[in-house]
Structures are given as structure tokens and as C-alpha cells.
Amino acid sequence: MTAVADPFTIDDSLEGTDRYAADLRRVRFTFLDTDDNLTRDPIKFTIEAFQTATSRSAYDYVSFSSPIAWARCYRVSPEGPLRAYVRVMTRPIEPLVELDGWSGWEFRDGGLCEPTEEQIEKVPAMCTSTLLLFAVPVGSLHVPLDTPEELTVQDAAAAVAALVAVLNERVGPVLARLEGGR
After folding, report:
1. How confident is the model at residue 136 (pLDDT cuts 50, 70, 90)?
2. CA distances from 156 to 38, 48, 86, 139, 162 (A)
3. Fewer CB within 10 A of the terminal residue: the chain, N end or C end?
4. Sequence-ordered list of residues with C-beta below 8 angstroms from that of 173, at least 6 positions apart, any chain
5. Residue 38 gets which letter from DSSP?
6. DSSP per-residue letters across 34-83
7. Mean pLDDT score of the chain, rounded to an integer?
8. In this predicted model, what pLDDT tens digit does every residue of 61-105 receive, in sequence order?
9. How far apart are CA 136 and CA 39, in angstroms?
10. Domain range holding 33?
11. Tell me, what's the pLDDT at 91?
12. Residue 134 C-beta-side C-alpha neighbours within 13 Å
């Protein structure tokens, strides 16, 4: 198995942190509980921090490498655990590998590359995906012990860093296996 860089990375540069802080100010209300206080629920706090870091603007505080298509975190029920869903794009599965009239996506520069218009005009291309689903242990999450009145970028960044560590631990071996199988 070859070594693969961490699939999820955080832009903790001053500019990256400033952009994330601006995004947090815009969505502060999503971190509130039913009494309009900053949530003490580590799962809700982490979900909101991660969603803000990955999908609130054109800029992403957390990025991920190809072949990851997307990553989301959800709580299925109000008291349920945090679930991570990560969509990984892969080569076609065995029954589809040599299907007449189809080609697979190319692997270049460490990831899948979408075919050009010219390529798909000649031969349609197929890419399959695998959905990774796993629980994130509550003990690995960060939330301020004494929840402050105001949402801070430091606490949100710590929540994101804790989740990214778990994502890298779980997803990294999957990507390493895919790398080795090319």
C-alpha cells in the first residue's frame, strides 16, 4: 500500500482563518439552540462548523483531494450519533470494466480527471463511486466546555480540526488502497 497524503486539509493560514471567521459571522444563527444560546451539543456544533468550512461560500476552509467528490456530516435523529458520509469516485466495478461503448475516467495527477468534451463525443465515459458511512465518536469532538456567549473562530476551527483528524484516519486507508490498485 502506498502512502497517501491526508485526504482532508485545513487552510489554517491567516487569510484562510480570516475567511472562515467571516463565514462564521454570516451563519452564527445556525450554532444556536432553541433558547437562542450558542449550542452546548458537540455534535450540532461540529456539524455547523464543518458545513461552514466546506459549503458556505466559494472558498473552502477545508478542502479534500481527488478522488473524493464530497463529504458531509449528519445526525439522523435528534439524539443520534454523528455520521460522516464521504463519496469516493472509483474506477468502474468489475461487471462494467469493459462494457462495450464506454471508457473509464483517467487517473492523472493523483486523482480522477473528467473527460474532455472531445473525448466524450467519441466515447461516453463511466465513473463509479463508493459511499463511505461511519459514526464519529462523540469523545473525539471538540466543543467549548464553558460555552461562550459568542461563537469564536478558535472553537469552530478546533471542532473542524478534530473532525478532520477522524476523517483522515478513516478515509486515508481507503484512498491508499485505491492508489495501490491502480
Report:
1. very high
2. 12, 9, 21, 16, 10
3. C
4. 1
5. B
6. TTSSB---HHHHHHHHHHHHHHSSSS-SEEE-TTEEEEEEEESSTTPPEE
7. 86
8. 999 988 898 999 999 888 889 999 999 988 777 777 778 888 877
9. 19
10. 8-64+137-180
11. 76
12. 15
166-81-20 Cα angle (round to 5): 55
Sort residue 160 into left (φ over 0), alpha (ψ -120 to 50) or beta.
alpha
Q: Tell me, yes or no, whether 124 lies in a domain.
A: no
Helix (H) or strand (E) holding 107: strand 106-108
| pLDDT, tens digit, 9 for 90 and up, residues 11-41 | 989 999 999 999 999 999 999 988 888 888 8
Residue 38 falls inside a structural domain: yes
Please report which helix (H) or strand (E) contains residue 90, including its range: strand 82-90
As given in the structure block, the three cell numbers for residue 110 are 493523483
